[in-house]
Structure to design on (345 residues):
């Protein structure tokens, strides 16, 4: 029996020593030798057959063997764990000298930047910002603006109709009538209304079936054409700088009388270059329509033209963005090519 125990002890020592990497393998050895059904444990069971004088002697040898093997297993366990930890640390090592990964951030769209600037300029002058629906009734889009059914000026804006009386708005001007209606009769108004508008236009470098306008409306007692002119000159100088010049040409809109179209001096070529892609050498660019609000438009929305007067304007945001940033193709604003958009950081 003694011999068997010593043999087992030696075998177990070797096995423990030979474990090199695997904690699981070490545990298997522990179970096989020291576990409930292990080899050493079953040898102990056989002790009942020993004589009374052999029993303590063998018991001592078994206990010594168990103590030694347990200690060996514990120290092997520590050794393997330390090795595992150092392997893990080595594999997760960070090279702090590597260059960092760049985080890509977004930026505002050039049209949003332009709109924000326009809003800021008018908010500074005490204007409110109003909104109206993009799906609009024929009444607000045309009739309330002095364009009855079959009026020839409706042809100026080829429309997308949804039903006979509902269309996607062709201009932001309907917000004029909606705002007047929501105010007490003859009370002063100073508002802008930015938004998208839709027309059956071709899609090319200077046309798009969807584009952006900012409508403006000022109503009060004693508002004159010179107020309109001063306001627009201020706007253009704020956007294009002190040297920008404005030119007012007589024009026609059914909802204003008199009406004007406003040009700004070409920022691209300055000296009337006939190869200029933007103004083609004329030196001027049309960017908005405006005028004194027609008395009939005031009347239809509950205002009295004998008591108050007003001016209105509508400007094209894409036009202004093209001039500000030197963009010569409108479609770039809608393609959403990041290489284009990233330039506005
Ligand atoms: N609504 C016009 C258009 O889309 C622009 C315009 C012209 C608006 C004169 C106005 C205005 O308010 O007074 O062509």
């Amino acid at each position: 029996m003694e011999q068997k125990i010593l043999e087992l002890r030696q075998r177990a020592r070797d096995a423990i020593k030979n474990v090199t990497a695997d904690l699981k393998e070490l545990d298997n050895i522990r179970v096989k030798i020291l576990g409930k059904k292990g080899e050493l444990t079953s040898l102990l069971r056989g002790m009942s057959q020993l004589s009374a004088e052999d029993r303590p002697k063998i018991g001592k040898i078994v206990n010594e063997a168990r103590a030694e093997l347990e200690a060996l297993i514990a120290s092997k366990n520590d050794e393997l764990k330390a090795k595992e930890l150092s392997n893990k640390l080595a594999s997760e090592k960070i090279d702090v000298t590597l260059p960092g990964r760049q985080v890509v951030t977004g930026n505002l769209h050039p049209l949003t930047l332009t709109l924000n600037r326009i809003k800021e300029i008018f908010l500074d002058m005490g204007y409110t910002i109003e909104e109206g629906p993009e799906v609009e009734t024929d009444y607000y889009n045309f009739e309330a603006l002095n364009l009855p059914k079959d009026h020839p000026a409706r042809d100026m804006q080829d429309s997308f109709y949804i039903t006979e009386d509902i269309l996607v708005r062709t201009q932001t001007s309907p917000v004029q009538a909606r705002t007047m209606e929501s105010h007490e009769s003859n009370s002063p108004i100073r508002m802008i209304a930015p938004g998208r508008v839709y027309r059956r236009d071709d899609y090319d470098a200077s046309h798009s079936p969807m584009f952006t306008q900012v409508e403006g409306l000022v109503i009060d007692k004693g508002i004159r054409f010179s107020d309109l002119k001063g306001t627009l000159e201020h706007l253009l100088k704020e956007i294009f700088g002190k040297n920008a010049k404005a030119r007012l040409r007589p024009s026609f809109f059914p909802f204003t009388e008199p009406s004007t179209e406003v040009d700004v001096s070409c920022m691209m070529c300055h000296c009337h270059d006939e190869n200029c892609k933007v103004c083609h050498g004329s030196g001027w660019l049309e960017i908005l329509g405006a005028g004194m609000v027609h008395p009939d438009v005031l009347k239809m929305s509950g205002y009295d033209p004998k008591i108050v007067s007003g001016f209105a304007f509508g400007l094209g945001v894409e036009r202004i963005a093209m001039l500000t940033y030197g963009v010569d193709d409108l479609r770039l604003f809608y393609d959403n090519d990041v290489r284009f958009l990233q330039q506005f950081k």
Notes: The mean pLDDT is 90. The pocket of 3,4-dihydroxyphenylalanine is lined by residues 171, 173, 215, 253, 255-256, 289-291, 312-314 (CB under 6 Å). The first strand starts at residue 128 and ends at 129.
